[in-house]
Specification:
With 157 residues, the chain is an alpha+beta fold. The chain has five helices and two strands, in the order αβααβαα. The model has no long low-confidence stretch (mean pLDDT 84).
Length: 157
């Protein structure tokens, strides 16, 4: 089963839905020829950060109760004790969390607007070669037109 419902699959650029043929190939989550972009952003977990501050405060508080001449010798003992108190909590708390967003984009060859948007975006991000649309047919047509124009100009002269 697809991770998207058929009515949820829309191009993020144009809002168009895939054709019936494209939907038939969407068993693995995206229709054939479509592009799935996933953006992830990593943040430090505020709970993990708070645990670190509490541990630091507890260490300072505990060290303050020890005579100043013995503090340096007791530092490792206090650190081990504080680490042990928070070991399980730290183990159950992720240091980071990730926010993830994904979008689908229609095949670049579906229209010029999508092609330009994909080309510009992928070029800017360094993925130009992976998402380059095959323009051989268009290039051949342009070459034919240029040859025909030159031939027409030569006949006029």
């Amino acid at each position: 089963m697809s991770e998207y419902d058929e009515d949820e699959i829309l191009c993020a650029i144009t809002g168009i839905a895939p054709s019936e043929n494209e939907l038939e190939s969407a068993e693995d989550g995206i229709p054939e020829g479509w592009i799935k972009l996933i953006a992830e952003r990593k943040f430090i977990n505020p709970k993990w950060e708070a645990i670190q501050m509490v541990k630091q405060g507890l260490m300072q508080q505990t060290l303050a109760t020890i005579p100043e001449k013995d503090r340096e010798n007791q530092l490792i003992n206090v650190a081990i004790q504080v680490e042990a108190q928070f070991a399980l909590l730290e183990d159950q708390t992720d240091q980071y969390f990730t926010i993830s967003e994904e979008v689908l984009i229609a095949p670049p060859e579906s229209n010029e607007y999508v092609q330009k948007a994909v080309s510009d975006t992928m070029t800017m991000m360094g993925f130009a070669e992976i998402f380059q649309v095959d323009d051989e047919e268009e290039d051949e047509e342009e070459e034919k037109e240029a040859i025909e124009e030159k031939a027409a100009e030569t006949e006029k002269a």
